């Protein structure tokens, strides 16, 4: 049985374990080790306005989507290639950022990722949502396009990381389910 819950509190140790299982083949890459998984998950979970969806299959954590509203002074858009100044300007209530999203491989056939995103965003009051996806992650990129995300530019989130596609989608998403 699968259950999906929206929450403002998560177990960092449990999420870290699942993250490492999901990304086992890529843990040698800098984008999965610097900053550490625990640091990234903690930063997101401690951000003002933090929210997450967590999925459990047969009482075992299967995946999560985590994010927070972007503050006006955000560094989220720094170094964005081919951006328009209006795109990167933030104000309270403008943008919710999905900072982490992952589902265990054995549950991907159940297509949990998109429902986790849709459930998290279904009651968000912001005008839009954004997410960075590694340019090599074409499976996720295609799934997000189908929901209405648009590619607005590319950037490298942290020094030494692979390039990521920056995606944006207007909210609400409820009509796209």
UniProtKB/TrEMBL annotation:
Residues 10-174 form the N-acetyltransferase domain. Keywords: Ribonucleoprotein, Ribosomal protein. GO terms for cellular component: ribosome. It comes from the Bacteria. It holds the Pfam family Acetyltransf_1. One of its GO terms (molecular function) is acyltransferase activity, transferring groups other than amino-acyl groups. This is Ribosomal protein S18 acetylase RimI. It comes from Asanoa hainanensis.
């Amino acid at each position: 049985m699968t259950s999906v819950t929206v929450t403002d509190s998560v177990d960092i140790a449990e999420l870290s374990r699942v993250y490492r299982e999901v990304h086992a083949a890529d843990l040698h890459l800098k984008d999965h080790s610097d900053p550490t998984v625990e640091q990234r998950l903690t930063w997101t979970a401690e951000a003002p306005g933090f929210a997450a969806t967590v999925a459990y299959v047969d009482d075992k954590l299967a995946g999560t989507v985590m994010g927070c509203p972007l503050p006006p002074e955000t560094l989220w858009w720094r170094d964005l290639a081919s951006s328009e100044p209006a795109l990167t300007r933030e104000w309270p209530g403008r943008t919710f950022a999905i900072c982490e999203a992952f589902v265990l491989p054995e549950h991907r056939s159940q297509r949990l990722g998109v429902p986790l995103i849709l459930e998290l965003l279904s009651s968000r009051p912001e005008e839009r949502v954004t997410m960075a996806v590694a340019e090599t992650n074409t499976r996720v990129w295609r799934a997000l396009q189908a929901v209405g995300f648009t590619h607005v530019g590319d950037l490298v989130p942290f020094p030494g990381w692979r390039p990521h596609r920056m995606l944006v989608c207007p909210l609400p998403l409820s009509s796209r389910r």
